[in-house]
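MODEL INPUT / OUTPUT PAIR
PAIR INDEX: 1
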Amino acid sequence: MVKRCAFALLVLVLAAGMLLTGHEAAAEEPWAEIEGESFDFIVGYDAGGSHDITARHMAEGLTELGIEVDVTNMPGGDATEAGYHVADSDPEENIVFWAHPPAQLFDPATRDVGYDFEDFDPVATMGSPTFVFAALVEQPFASYDELVEHIEENPGQTVVGGQAMNHPMHYAFEMLLPSDELDYSYVNLGGGADVQANLAGGHVQAGHLSLAAALPLYEDDELEILVHTSEMAETVDAIPEVPHMRDVGVDYAEPHSLSALAPEGIDEDVREALNAAIREVIESEDFQEDMDEMGVVAVPHTIEETESYFDELVEDVLPDYEAWLEEQN
């Protein structure tokens, strides 16, 4: 009798332990809802850029958590073709738009791209690539103030290169070098690699490009980085000595955070699970190291924090951008 009671007690203890372990596992793995499922991450630019590379690093991390991710490049319309494709998709298809605010919010708010920001449910924000203003070391200026002074002393003779026209990236350029106050020539180039090539070739004297594109020349002491425009950090680890644009008197930060947006109506449990998984990847040491090497400031956001981020853009940045855009047109 005593042996039977002892055996029964042992079974109860083991069962309780297994139950506790199961609860702990569930608590440790809030993405369990989507383990074994497959997601499509749609990137609106060609392979090799910051959008594509970050998406693929994220896909690798999610795969290690048991969530399969297929990254598809769908360039066109400054990523708005990819945005339209996702917005028009069935929310049950496990499809995500991996992009930045210009394609997710600013373009839909200011021109007809076939969708609105409200056509998405924000899932997560992972942080932002760092963008910089840079010049070759041989130029007669080595700081932002010296660049402004050079333009003022040589009106109409300075050529600078950017990545867009009448676009949030052009707007960031205007915040630093207001064309109604400074006389210079602005050249719209195709992308960061084009800006880098034109800087290296001496075709433009200063340029706006991603830190990832600038780092090779910077590390070879061929490029001077004048300021950075990160919205996530005042100091960027890869370039700690470079001032933020706020440090040179320009009260602005470039909204370039990469976010995952699903079509409106995604299952809320799936949305929560995917957000938890994305945050788990962002917080991993490997992902942080990979992002640091690219000059990406990776900061995990909950769904609520992601929604608040976009709310702040709508309230604080979009009205001024719309007013500037109207002046340009």
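PAIR INDEX: 2
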Amino acid sequence: MQNGTRYTMANLQAYMLRCLADVSPGFGIDPERLCLGLGFEVADLADPDCRLSFRQASEMIRRAVTLAPGRGIGLEVANQETISSIGLVGYALMTSPTFGDAVRLGMSLQNHAGAMLEFDCVEEGATMSVVAANRFHEPDIEVFLVEEAFGSFMTIARTLAGGEFRPSSIDFSYACPAYVAQYERTFDCPLRFGQKDNVFSCDLAWAKRPIPTYDPLSHRQVLSFFDELRAQEDEDSELIESVERIVRRDLRRAPTLEAVAAQLCMSERTLRRRLARSGVSFQALLDGVRQRRATALLSNPRLSIEEVAYEVGFSDSHNFRRAFKRWTGHGPRGVRFAV
């Protein structure tokens, strides 16, 4: 179970999850079953305004992987995706001058493409590589995430650079799967499993390949859109940090939404609206701060459960136990033993 509001903040684009729902019947899976009880339905994934949390997305994927064990479901999702599957980010890439420009731009816009891994582009010698790392510790869905990411890289690269594009090599941090033939068909290049990192590499010469759909005016327009979006996100991130800072000052007597809004010189309604725009509620922020503080205090054996409860704003230790289990999936005593 992950800590922090960023794991539960609903700011993840649903592009890839929509494709997962589309391919799941081919694996004998009812897509509605993948969403059951997660706070959204399959139809919601088609809404361009739909945003999900990493927790919701990872649970949907986990269910799919569990229901289709030993199948390359991540590769199959990638095979169904096109460059338009990542929305306006795809358009920004298509209007870039060269393949290298598109790759570097993609790195800067990865959060807008619904990426569930973190990507970094490295140019070394005659090789250009994209390294994929986990945002959160989710080992049971890592294979799916890497399959989908690297598989979609193939589709995007061939759309931008031409059908003859071929990686020079791909490294995977996990063991070779039983369905490795599916990997070989998808990537058509040397594959190495059990490596230190997940790395998709190609000849640096591809970076100079002009993109046929390059359009300078359209490119400037879409970049301007993302610049405005980033400015808004920076403002929202600053607001969230300010709210958390105010709440942390005295968790024993946690302030109300109205009190926090007053300290930020805005109305309660404005604060609620701006938090909603960021995909988070005041209660979720408060719970996140309480959870992190409680987990830290539980590592101190001199403090009783009752004292920890009081320190994070609960006058009743029973209510604290219930809340802590809701936050983490475990009771405070179990977490204390684990710590």
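PAIR 2 NOTE: The chain has two domains: 5-214, 228-338.
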